[in-house]
Amino acid sequence: MYQIKTYNAIVQTGLDRFNDDYQINQTDDADGYLIRSVDLHEHDFPETLKVIARCGAGFNNIPLDKATANGTAVFTTPGSNANAVKELMIAVLIAASRNLFAAADYAANNSGADISKRTERDKTKFNGQELLGQTLAVIGVGHVGSLVANAASNLGMKVVAYDPYLSSDAAWRISTDIKRAKTLDEALAVADYVTVHVPKNAETTGMIDADAFAAMKPGVKVFNFARGGIVDNTEMIKALDDGRAEAYFTDFGSDEILNRNDVVITPHIGGSTAEAETNGAVQGADSIMTFLETGNVLNSVNLPNLQVPFVAPYRITVMHKNIPNMVGQIATILANANINIENMSNAAKNDVAYTIIDVNHLQQQDAAIIDQLSAIDAVYRARILKREQ
């Protein structure tokens, strides 16, 4: 019986994915966590915790080093809220081009007997611009960025995309009408609108900085519906004040951008749809069950992708440091126990490696194998799995 602990409100559809081999919120000593936004940085992980699945694409609320040291695999659900973020971004893009936010605010506060006269007189203040023929620079064309790029292209915009880490899968998702820039500056230089859709990490934090603004055309509109901190807010304000940028639209508020007529902030609602929450919960639950029952890995942020058909009666999985001779040490322990390896697969992600070994037999006493594997200094966690017949 596997124990699952949830944090935040997890959609029931996701919880319903777990079968009778799982109990939900019956103990703190869980095998898996299914979470959304709870901050786990000060959390004490139980030794039993083998997997965390975060319903969403980000994972800055999870201490990866601590999770890895505990032998805990961490998964996200990339793409689960991609359509929701895309739709919000396109909605704001259209609203921005037509000055809809300012116009609605004006109309909501326009009262008195001569409303019609004043409206006719003042409406030219809100003259907008059609998106047709305008150029949008999409920085990052992963799950969300590719959808945004295609949708903008379908609206008749010229779209230029920049992503130095463009995967083959992402490339297939992008319309052939979209131009690919070789550098960030090349994309920014031609854009009337700029939107960022990159993950937040050491390389992307503050990537839209003073140099980036210097590369943009005057009067550009900037959008950030990816992560707070991708756009340097201090430099954003400078660009707005000196006219380099006309307006800023973001899903992430902070003190320095509050109370400005040229900044529109939404309260982090990019992925806040019923469909996105359901997608994330279902994908997260499936990731947990797959990992606990088969050891296979897909969309982990601290383990490499490794998916091996589970056809042997038993499987041994080992999460360990990515250093020389680890596979040799593991194989030696199994050989000394007279265990014949039917299949072995190994992959690494940065400093962490993961090994899957399929075997035909294990004796009752062979549970001691786990103790021997775990005794290797570089091993974070070893498990034995039995294939369901």
From TrEMBL:
CDD domains, per the entry: ACT_3PGDH, PGDH_like_3
Cite the annotated pathway.
Amino-acid biosynthesis; L-serine biosynthesis; L-serine from 3-phospho-D-glycerate: step 1/3
Q: Does the keyword DNA damage apply?
A: no
Recorded superkingdom: Bacteria
> Pfam families recorded for this chain?
2-Hacid_dh, 2-Hacid_dh_C
Entry function = Catalyzes the reversible oxidation of 3-phospho-D-glycerate to 3-phosphonooxypyruvate, the first step of the phosphorylated L-serine biosynthesis pathway. Also catalyzes the reversible oxidation of 2-hydroxyglutarate to 2-oxoglutarate.
Know the name of this protein? D-3-phosphoglycerate dehydrogenase
